[in-house]
Amino acid sequence: MLKVKDIVSYFEKICPFSLCEEWDNTGLLIGDENAGVTRILVCLDVDESVAREAADKKCELIVSHHPVIFHPLKKISANSCEGILIKNGISAVSAHTNLDVANGGLNDYLAEKLGLENTEILVPAGEFDGKTVGYGRFAKLKKPEKLIDIAKKCAEILGAESLRYMGDDDRIIEKIAVNSGGGASMADACFDKNIGLYISGDFKYSNMRDCAQRGLCVIDAGHYETEHIVCEWFKKVLSKKFDAEIIASEKNTNVIKYLH
């Protein structure tokens, strides 16, 4: 029978937890590695509603991108996220920055979704299995496109209700960089690579101004929007390897609302 530790071992092979940042928290964070698994709930974030959803759907395991335990816990109540999981015998495995940097991981999947081919790593972060791993991906487009057309396509593909962007609508873009989640701090890596457009999330006004002054267009597609596709990635990868039902969470939605 499939066990929690089999899932953990598989992630160790494709996106080792040793690749995660020191401040991160990944791996089996709640539960029993020897527990059996027939049904897995995959999600970006784990909160009380997602924990109850897993219990209602009789899932023995949650696999998330953002860690279920990130900040130090001072207590666990019966109605807290952690309490619900423990009470119902549900294990939780999180693959976060290790999945961001891994080859074939979330950044490669984001680049693929947005139509980029023959990508290179934007910010190297180490090495695994003899190959460089790192944050973000960039590539030259097969055919140059206008910024506004890329922005519209980006919103459609990522299901973004609204996105912020910066640059001349008619600017012709030849090379694009993408970085899932909050990648604003890595914009500097674009400047010496002749990248015309950087797509990521969580840009401050000052980030946008700096990029504008240095000639880099930006699409802030949102942290959630650039990472919720991890559910597709989890489902695709786990269903190929394991005989278990993989369910994408319906309760893990974007907490940010937009007034148009």
From TrEMBL:
Keyword Metal-binding part of the UniProt annotation: yes
Gene Ontology cellular-component annotations: cytoplasm
One example GO MF annotation: metal ion binding
Entry superkingdom: Bacteria
Pfam families (UniProt xref): DUF34_NIF3
Stated name of the protein: GTP cyclohydrolase 1 type 2 homolog
Family according to the record: Belongs to the GTP cyclohydrolase I type 2/NIF3 family.
Binding-site positions, a divalent metal cation: 65-66, 100, 223, 227
Metal-binding is among the record's keywords: yes
UniProt keyword annotations, A-Z: Metal-binding
Organism from which the protein derives: Qingrenia yutianensis
